[in-house]
Amino acid sequence: xxxxxxxxxxxxxxxxxxxxxxxxxxxxxxxxxxxxxxxxxxxxxxxxxxxxxxxxxxxxxxxxxxxxxxxxxxxxxxxxxxxxxxxxxxxxxxxxxxxxxxxxxxxxxxxxxxxxxxxxxxxxxxxxxxxxxxxxxxxxxxxxxxxxxxxxxxxxxxxxxxxxxxxxxxxxxxxxxxxxxxxxxxxxxxxxxxxxxxxxxxxxxxxxxxxxxxxxxxxxxxxxxxxxxxxxxxxxxxxxxxxxxxxxxxxxxxxxxxxxxxxxxxxxxxxxxxxxxxxxxxxxxxxxxxxxxxxxxxxxxxxxxxxxxxxxxxxxxxxxxxxxxxxxxxxxxxxxxxxxxxxxxxxxxxxxxxxxxxxxxxxxxxxxxxxxxxxxxxxxxxxxxxxxx
Amino acid sequence: xxxxxxxxxxxxxxxxxxxxxxxxxxxxxxxxxxxxxxxxxxxxxxxxxxxxxxxxxxxxxxxxxxxxxxxxxxxxxxxxxxxxxxxxxxxxxxxxxxxxxxxxxxxxxxxxxxxxxxxxxxxxxxxxxxxxxxxxxxxxxxxxxxxxxxxxxxxxxxxxxxxxxxxxxxxxxxxxxxxxxxxxxxxxxxxxxxxxxxxxxxxxxxxxxxxxxxxxxxxxxxxxxxxxxxxxxxxx
Lengths: 389, 236
Hints:
The complex is a heterodimer of chains A (389) and B (236).
Chain A: H1 2-6, H2 12-18, H3 21-51, H4 54-58, E1 63-66, E2 79-80, H5 81-87, E3 93-107, E4 114-122, H6 134-138, E5 146-150, H7 160-165, E6 171-174, E7 177-185, E8 196-200, H8 201-207, E9 215-216, E10 218-223, H9 229-239, E11 245-248, H10 249-263, H11 266-295, H12 297-306, H13 310-347, H14 355-377
Parallel strand pairs in A: 4-8, 5-7
Antiparallel strand pairs in A: 1-10, 1-11, 2-9, 3-4, 3-10, 5-8, 6-7
Helix pairs in contact in A: 2-13, 3-11, 3-13, 3-14, 11-14, 13-14
Chain B: E1 7-16, E2 23-33, E3 38-42, H1 49-56, E4 64-69, E5 72-73, H2 79-86, E6 89-92, H3 104-112, H4 120-133, H5 149-162, E7 167-171, H6 179-196, E8 199-203, E9 215-220, E10 223-225
Parallel strand pairs in B: 3-8, 3-9, 6-7, 7-8
Antiparallel strand pairs in B: 1-2, 1-4, 4-5, 9-10
Helix pairs in contact in B: 3-4, 3-5, 4-5, 5-6
């Protein structure tokens, strides 16, 4: 370390940048702008994907059974409940919860308009979510025709939560059948569902009489502590017939996100937005570095005439790129934090500055600056020390 | 004389262009410059002086003839060998060619940074020492922008000498200076080069500074004529 300090040179790159404050400001503004654009676009994209699995994350399960015909939370197909019971045979399995899952039409008790709401039906005594506050509320579902309403549902479903909290009896219609709100839960909306309802399997089947007997859409499996979910999933998949797919909980989340990523244009649009930011940044940094090298060409030629290696001059330009990346990233990061806060409060989207995105954007900025520096270096080849006399 | 000649040119020829456009600028140049000798090269413009300087300075590939600089043959020398050799050659240009973003002290240190195995502090102290030697001890932290023409050329001399060259090449160092300042700068250059035992080959048009030379060489149409007899061979 001391040796390194002793052998240090004049910080030429830093001085080249800082002695031209206007050019530096332009470069940093460009890089920061590109960084902010990338932060926003990637933030929106990840936030939207995150929002598509609000419900999925809540389940108390290590493994999840679904039908291979299911494509996403908005089109879940049924599979025989028997498969879930068969899975009980595995020694690692501790408990199971069969879940009915469908989008039903909820009538707004105030305006009488209908809107589709995600409805889950389960045995009130079975564990459904990891949140322990659900169990006491679920007991009220044992009575037929009772539902638990998600108070975070969009306001279009009616002032259910307000009325309920005010002590009123809230009744409405689902699929033409009368139901009563027995309590409120806090789950959150997602891409596919503007609101959520929980009810007992019995009520669910009553609302949807056409459901084939013994058919469920989702099967939750809880494993004994210490068992490896991925290994059990592989074994169950091999043992069970092919009319069911065995996923880990993370696999279930990925399954949903993957649908929105690949089957809709959301991922493409926001990734394209981020790419635009990247390109804009590249152009600005390249312009700045190229004109910087051009302006100093006689000076670079002088250094070569003095005996400096071309490689060390390339190093000067590379370090300029590196410094620009570091200096430009910091304001972009700070602005990103602020804008995420703004987005969260305005849209309820779960947009946070997570480490992987912070690293991704920094990498992009680094690539942007170093790539531009590499292109600008070609100009250095024009620095012919023989021409300066 | 025991020390090898700083410069030994033998039958040096050089052409620019190719085919019908090919034009000869140097035609069988022979020249010896001893270690520590100060040689001035004069001649009308376009006669090939600057080309000669770039060839001796290892800035250009030698085409024909023998060019020995500080004992190294440059005909056929590769890019890397020439770059290495340039570290032992100080160069002073018509324009001062200082780095605009560096202070006087930092500019000179770009020269002493080329010396291997010295700590940052030592190299910086040497840079200051050189600036004091050229009489700019009070202007260490000024940017080239804030210095006068003569001061800038002095900084350039300090920078060239800071790399401890054994040969100094100067191309009309007084061109941008008034006669008095020019004279001062050249005298400074000569006395510092003498102290270091450093040979000097200087191209100049300036008739007022010819008397500082140990020897004058005149060039015309790509050929050298020994205009003056070698006067002070005993020096050095």
